[in-house]
C-alpha cells in the first residue's frame, strides 16, 4: 500500500464523515418538520370539529327529559327507535313495523321514543339527514311529529343525491296540517339543528352505531319483525 | 452506486427500484389523501366511526375522529412531496397496524360495523354483513407499500432527494 493511496483514503474517510454528519442533521430536521406537520394537522382537525360543535340546544316540545327523542304514548315499556330519514333500511323498517308500533302505543303497552339521528349526512349533498331531522323537531313543535315522520319515509329521497329541499319539506309539513308559515321559518332558521346534533351524539354515546336500531327497555332487539317487537314488549311489560 | 451496464438481475433491480419507490410513495400518498378526503367533510361522523369500534370512551373517540382525517391528509401530502419519506412511511405503517388491529378486534368481538376506512364508517344497514377480511387484506397491501418505503425511502422526484442535492454517497439512509 503506497502512502499516497493512504492519504487519499484518509481524505475520503473525512469527506464521508462530513457527508454523514450533514445527512444526520438533514434527517433530524426533516423528521422534526414532518412530525410537526402531522401534530399541527391533528390540532387543526380538533379545532375545526370543536368550532362546529354547539353545546346548547333547545329540545322541541314532546321530547323526553334528556332531549334525545320525541315521545309518543305513556305505556310502561319504553321502545327506543333510532332512525335516519335518509336510511333505506329505516324506511323498510317503518313499512313493516310502523303499524305494530302505533298499536302498541295506542294500546297503552309501550311508550315510543323516536330518535331522529343524522348519521348519513355524507350520503346526501345537502346534509339532508340533519335538515330532515331538524324539520321533524319543527313538526313536533306543531304537534305533528308522527305524521311528518311517516310522510318523510314515504317520500324518502335516494342516497347520494340532494335529498328533499327545504321547500319540499315545508310542503310535506303543510300537507300533514302544520301551519305553513311557522313551520317554514322554523325549517329555514334551522331552529332544531343543534338539537339534531345532540340527538345524534347521545345515540352514539348510547352505543348506537347503525340505523334502524330498536331498544326495548334499553336493550337492543335483534328480531326486527312485528311479532318479535310485540313479543319483546309483552315480555318486558310483565 | 452500482454502474452495471449489463442487464444482470441485480442491475435490473438497481434501475427498477427507484421507480418502484416512486410508485409506492405516490400510491401510499393517494391512499391517505383519499382516506382523509372522504372523512374530512363530516368530522362528527368520523368520530362516530371511531366510536363504533368500542375501544375507547366516546369523548376520546370524537377527538381521534376529528384529528385523524387531517393527519391522513398531511401524511398524504408529505408522501406526495417526498419529504421525510422514511418517517412518513414509518408513521403510515404504525397507523395501518393500528387500523388492522382495530378491524381484527371488531371482527373477533363480533361487532357488525363498517371499518370507516374511506368515509362511510360505523353503521351498517340491516342485513349488510361486514367485510373484515377484504379490509384487512387491503390494509396489509398498503402496509407493504409503507414497508418498501421504510427500507428504501429515497425515490426520484422527492423533496428528500432535492435537499440531499448531489451528495449521493450511500443515499440509502434518510
TrEMBL record, chain A:
Lineage from the top down?
Bacteria, Bacillati, Actinomycetota, Actinomycetes, Micromonosporales
Family listed: Belongs to the thioredoxin family. DsbA subfamily.
PANTHER family in the cross-refs: DISULFIDE BOND FORMATION PROTEIN D, GLUTATHIONE S-TRANSFERASE KAPPA
Which residue windows are coiled coil? none
Family annotation (Gene3D superfamilies):
Glutaredoxin
Please tell me the species this chain comes from: Micromonospora chalcea
Annotated segments matching region Disordered = 210-238
Protein name per Swiss-Prot or TrEMBL = Disulfide bond formation protein DsbA
Keywords from the UniProt entry: Disulfide bond, Membrane, Oxidoreductase, Redox-active center, Signal, Transmembrane, Transmembrane helix
Tell whether Aminoacyl-tRNA synthetase is among the UniProt keywords: no
Highest taxon above the source species: Bacteria
Instruction: Tell me where in this chain the Thioredoxin-like fold domain is found.
Output: 75-234
Q: What's one Pfam family the UniProt record gives for this protein?
A: Thioredoxin_4
Query: What residue ranges are annotated as transmembrane?
Result: 28-49
Automatic annotation (TrEMBL), chain B:
**Is the keyword Transmembrane assigned to this protein?**
yes
Q: Which UniProt keywords apply?
A: Membrane, Transmembrane, Transmembrane helix
- Provide the Methylamine utilisation protein MauE domain boundaries: 18-150
Q: Which domain of life is it from?
A: Bacteria
Transmembrane stretches in the record are 16-35, 55-80, 87-108
* Location relative to the cell: Membrane
Q: Does the keyword Transmembrane apply?
A: yes
Against InterPro entries, the record matches this protein to: Methylamine_util_MauE
Q: How does it sit in the membrane?
A: Multi-pass membrane protein
Report what the protein is called: DoxX family membrane protein
According to its UniProt entry, this protein's organism is Micromonospora chalcea
Amino acid at each position: 500500500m503506497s502512502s499516497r493511496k493512504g492519504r487519499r483514503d484518509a481524505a475520503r474517510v473525512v469527506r464521508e464523515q462530513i457527508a454523514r454528519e450533514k445527512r444526520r442533521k438533514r434527517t433530524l430536521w426533516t423528521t422534526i418538520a414532518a412530525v410537526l406537520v402531522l401534530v399541527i394537522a391533528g390540532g387543526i382537525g380538533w379545532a375545526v370539529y370543536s368550532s362546529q360543535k354547539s353545546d346548547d340546544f333547545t329540545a322541541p316540545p314532546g321530547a323526553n327529559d334528556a332531549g334525545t327523542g320525541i315521545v309518543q304514548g305513556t305505556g310502561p315499556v319504553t321502545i327506543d327507535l333510532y332512525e335516519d330519514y335518509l336510511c333505506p333500511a329505516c324506511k323498510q323498517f317503518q313499512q313493516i313495523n310502523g303499524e305494530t308500533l302505533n298499536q302498541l302505543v295506542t294500546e297503552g303497552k309501550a311508550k315510543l321514543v323516536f330518535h331522529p339521528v343524522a348519521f348519513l349526512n355524507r350520503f346526501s349533498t345537502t346534509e339532508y339527514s340533519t335538515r330532515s331531522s331538524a324539520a321533524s323537531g319543527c313538526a313536533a313543535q306543531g304537534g305533528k311529529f308522527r305524521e311528518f315522520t311517516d310522510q318523510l319515509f314515504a317520500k324518502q329521497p335516494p342516497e347520494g343525491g340532494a335529498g328533499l329541499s327545504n321547500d319540499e319539506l315545508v310542503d310535506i309539513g303543510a300537507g300533514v296540517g302544520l301551519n305553513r308559515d311557522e313551520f317554514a321559518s322554523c325549517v329555514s332558521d334551522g331552529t332544531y339543528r343543534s338539537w339534531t346534533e345532540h340527538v345524534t351524539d347521545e345515540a352514539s354515546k348510547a352505543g348506537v352505531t347503525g340505523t334502524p336500531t330498536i331498544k326495548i327497555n334499553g336493550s337492543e332487539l335483534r328480531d326486527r319483525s312485528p311479532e318479535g317487537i310485540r313479543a319483546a314488549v309483552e315480555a318486558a311489560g310483565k | 452506486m452500482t454502474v452495471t451496464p449489463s442487464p444482470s438481475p441485480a442491475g435490473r433491480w438497481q434501475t427498477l427500484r427507484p421507480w418502484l419507490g416512486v410508485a409506492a410513495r405516490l400510491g401510499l400518498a393517494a391512499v391517505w389523501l383519499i382516506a382523509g378526503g372522504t372523512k374530512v367533510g363530516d368530522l362528527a361522523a368520523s368520530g362516530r366511526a371511531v366510536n363504533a369500534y368500542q375501544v375507547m370512551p366516546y369523548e376520546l373517540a370524537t377527538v381521534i375522529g376529528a384529528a385523524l382525517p387531517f393527519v391522513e391528509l398531511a401524511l398524504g401530502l408529505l408522501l406526495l412531496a417526498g419529504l421525510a419519506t422514511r418517517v412518513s412511511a414509518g408513521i403510515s405503517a404504525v397507523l395501518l397496524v393500528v387500523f388492522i388491529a382495530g378491524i381484527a378486534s371488531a371482527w373477533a368481538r363480533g361487532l357488525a360495523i363498517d371499518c370507516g376506512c374511506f368515509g362511510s364508517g360505523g353503521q351498517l344497514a340491516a342485513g349488510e354483513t361486514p367485510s373484515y377480511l377484504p379490509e384487512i387484506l387491503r390494509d396489509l397491501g398498503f402496509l407493504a407499500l409503507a414497508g418498501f418505503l421504510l427500507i428504501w425511502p429515497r425515490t426520484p422526484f422527492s423533496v428528500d432527494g432535492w435537499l440531499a442535492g448531489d451528495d449521493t454517497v450511500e443515499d440509502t439512509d434518510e
